[in-house]
């Protein structure tokens, strides 16, 4: 299973899983020399930006750090309660 | 070609393309009811967060908005000059 399939799940999975309103954020770095704590700090600040625009269901927020050879992918599954504004 | 392959390019493409140091940001929304201007605003603020951690080569920054049935994917290819700090 490629890194992408692991990140986004096979397309058939999508139809089976109950379509909840969510935003998916992926931050992928090819050369993997951004230290993990920095990626984590970036992630938190990015989620804070997103939270200004959509109401996030923090309890169900899921974040994974995936590695494949030189690629590091930080994947956040962000369930949305509603779009603000 | 699936939305993902369009976003990340086939894995063989990656080996052929000169491996430049870059960050890839994807913001994917399943229900596509976040208005495009709001996605654009979010993108700019997210890139501003990233720019605090890495020096971005603004001239080569590439952003695409991809649509496939109910999914909207905002994809930013962010060439990095160096990681700060």
From TrEMBL, chains A, B:
Gene Ontology biological process terms from the UniProt entry: cell division; regulation of division septum assembly
Cross-referenced InterPro entries: MinE (IPR005527), MinE_sf (IPR036707)
Keyword vocabulary terms for this entry: Cell cycle, Cell division
NCBIfam families given in the database record: minE (TIGR01215), PRK00296.1 (NF001422)
Family in the record: Belongs to the MinE family.
Function noted in UniProt: Prevents the cell division inhibition by proteins MinC and MinD at internal division sites while permitting inhibition at polar sites. This ensures cell division at the proper site by restricting the formation of a division septum at the midpoint of the long axis of the cell.
Protein name, as recorded: Cell division topological specificity factor
Organism: Armatimonas rosea
Gene: minE
